[in-house]
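WARN no homologs supplied; continuing
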Amino acid sequence: MARIRKAVIPAAGMGTRFLPATKAIPKEMLPIVNKPSIQLIVEEAAAAGIEEVVIVTGRGKTDIVDHFDAHPQLEEILRRAGKEALLHEVVAPTKMVKLSTVRQQRPLGLGHAILCARHLIGNEPFVVFLPDDLVDAQRPCARQLMDVYEETGKSVLALMNVPRSETHMYGIAAGSVDPNDPRRVVVDRLVEKPSNEQAPSTLAVVGRYVLDPVVFDWLARTVPGRGDEIQLTDALASMVTTSGILGYLFEGNRFDAGDVTGYLLANLNWAHKQPRIWSQIEDFVRSHPSK
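OK structure emitted
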């Protein structure tokens, strides 16, 4: 089975849920504590064994590219000041993976954004990371899915159970549980944002996918759907009946960093990992009781 080396991060969205903050700043550059959220995504990719990452950008997204580029002047200033810890933090993003970018010139949907990376991915399986979805897991979420692909040869979707009242917010998968692994689901149906009453299950597809390169053929022939966009879910729904797709109920905590509340919760989660910062948050909460 082919080893998975490459990943795609679609990052061309406008970030309208964070206006006016994202009027001039890409939403992917909003910080989770002291790191841009997209850096956490690339860190997960590197930790999972990904060697090459393609970021699909749009107009106004040059800050993302700059963040992963070297900054010799800043590095020299930090070096001369003896600020080795800060220097390491500045240099680290430039060395995690081989990074390429491609421009999505028109906002034609997630499926189209992934299709824009076809010439850089080639005929290899790859991971898709949606940058709004941050997953804090002991074992990288992407690695969990990659192991399933490398064992089975089938595309794998990250799944999590959600309340039925929230199914209209997600692509929903239905299928049968693998009797040998309760975390695996043999998917037989995918529906993009169904009504709560019509949802075939409560298994939501969240922002990690391991995809066989055949998905590019399906994306190329997918007719634009909701919002006149090429939807990834539509292409995957076609693949279900031809190539077969698995879902995997990953281990870890997922945060929707594309939503203001989810973004704040993500900050609290990663702040909790830093004792000095967390102690100050606790002090603030204690001194500001809810009314």
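DSSP finds eleven helices and 13 strands in the chain.
OK
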